[in-house]
Amino acid sequence: MLIGVPAESMAGETRVAVTPETVKKLKAQGHTLRIEAGAGIAASVTDAAYEAAGGEITDAAGAWGSDLLLKVRCPS
Known about the structure:
Helices cover 26% and strands 18% of the residues. It is globular. The protein is an alpha/beta fold. The chain has 3 helices and 4 strands; from the N terminus they run βαβαβαβ.
């Protein structure tokens, strides 16, 4: 399954829906994860950390165009 992780858009939100460890676990189950570039910055998670865990860094359209979205807050 293609799973997208868009950046949070709510002002002041510092969480991100997945950590690199979560990416590893979902990747091991056969899923593909597309994480919007910069999605983890407020949570001190770099794009490089997501790539090292097996995630793909993409633009907003790539993350939103997935089969399943993972977000902390409801999409606005």
